[in-house]
Amino acid sequence: MLRVLLLLLLISLSVGRSDAGEIAGQATAIDSSTIKVNDQRIMLFGVDSVMRNETCALDGKPWKCWDASVHALQALLDRGQAVCETVGEPDLYGRVLARCTVEGESVNEQLVRSGYALARPAESSEYVAAEAAARESKVGLWRGQFTPPGEIRRQHGIMVERP
């Protein structure tokens, strides 16, 4: 009897693991590079964006670039259901890194291509070309002045561990 219970427990744990690699559902932007799907916080893999309290400038005037980045991300998510493939294990706060798509298009890449996020080459080179295209086209953040988030973290001694 004990063997049967242990076997059932192992089977149930392995079923849970196979589903853990994909998270799907309607998504909401909760930060400029973090979304929520089914109560799961997901950081977009290979992507970084402006900090919440960053002061950006557009045409020499203060610009709420973080708000603009969050709105751009939400617009991508509003196109349909998000399907996110996790990368690695959740961090201490339960957040996971993931590559997400909506309607078959990469949310990560589209956010970088639209200029509202930067590639994070330390994680992946997947979005470096999209960032270069956005910078050259002067779209999103690139149409104004901003400080890259990695630089702000270094200036303030903020170390962000990604899972």
What does this structure look like?
- The protein is α+β, with helices and mostly antiparallel strands.
- The chain has one domain: OB fold (Dihydrolipoamide Acetyltransferase, E2P), CATH 2.40.50.90.
- The protein contains five helices and eleven strands; from the N terminus they run H-E-E-E-E-E-E-E-H-E-E-E-H-E-H-H.
- Strands 1, 2, 3, 4, 8, 9 and 10 form a seven-stranded mixed β-sheet that branches. A two-stranded antiparallel ribbon has the order 5-11.
Please describe the structure with a list of short key phrases separated by commas or semicolons:
two-stranded antiparallel sheet, 163 residues, 7-stranded mixed β-sheet, 5 helices, alpha+beta, OB fold (Dihydrolipoamide Acetyltransferase, E2P)
Task: Provide a brief overview of the structure.
The protein is α+β, with helices and mostly antiparallel strands and 163 residues long.
Name the CATH class.
Mainly Beta
Task: Summarize the biggest pleated sheet.
Answer: 7 strands, mixed
Provide a count of the helices. 5
Parts with pLDDT < 50 across at least 5 consecutive residues = 4-19
Layout of helices and strands:
Blueprint: H1 2-20, E1 22-25, E2 27-29, E3 34-37, E4 40-44, E5 47-48, E6 56-58, E7 61-63, H2 65-77, E8 82-87, E9 96-102, E10 105-106, H3 107-113, E11 118-119, H4 128-137, H5 149-155
Parallel strand pairs: 4-9
Antiparallel strand pairs: 1-8, 2-3, 3-4, 5-11, 6-7, 8-9, 9-10
